[in-house]
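Thread: Newbie trying to understand structure tokens

Hi all, I'm a second-year student working on a class project, and my supervisor (Dr. K.) asked me to get a predicted structure for one chain before our next meeting. I've only ever worked with sequences, so writing a 3D structure as a token string is new to me. If someone could post the tokens and maybe explain what I'm looking at, I'd be very grateful. Here's the chain:
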Amino acid sequence: MSIMQYNGGSVVAMVGKDCVAIAADKRLGQQFMTVSTEFQKIFKASEKSYIGLPGLATDVITLADRFRFKINMYKMREERDMAPKTLAHMVSSTLYEKRFGPYFVEPVIAGLGDDNKPFICSMDLIGCINFAKDFVVSGTASSNLYGMCESLWEPDLEPEDLFETISQALLNAQDRDALSGWGATVYIITADELIVRTLKSRQD
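---
Reply by user tm_fold:
Sure, no problem. This is what the structure looks like when written as tokens:
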């Protein structure tokens, strides 16, 4: 088993009409043994930007703290929130710094940029950025998620439709992956509000 699959977990982000969504499962495992069913994988970067961190749990916690420190330093120095694209490059350079002994995490970033333009991207464990205009996936259920997202995603989805689409994609993908599951958390980011919902799923 790859070190990337050791703790399990999956993250997906999708673009809608002037909104974005990011969702992750809640399982923390030790190979096939479930250790926790309330493990946080999505972290707030700014009012309109979020980072999803699937991968090795120790590195998820380390990087969440590291990113929070760098984001706070940027906010103090620049006196403004970090834009999602800037956040993506900061995350990328942080991972690339450690390329010879990498953090075993493949981040997903979702947010609204200038004039509330949706932005999503994903990366590999050394920070190679994959920009996308529809959806990005990461984690142990990523191959399942690609199939579900390709089937369900449509352009210009309203926030409620985007919620339904990303929820169905994640729940059906993680049901077919032994290393992800035990519910999910979904964040819908719009110009006016942040909607956070918790989903119940098969608990086996």
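A couple of things are worth pointing out once you decode it. The first helix runs from residue 57 to 78. Helices lie at 57-78, 84-97, 142-152, 159-174. Feel free to ask follow-ups in this thread.
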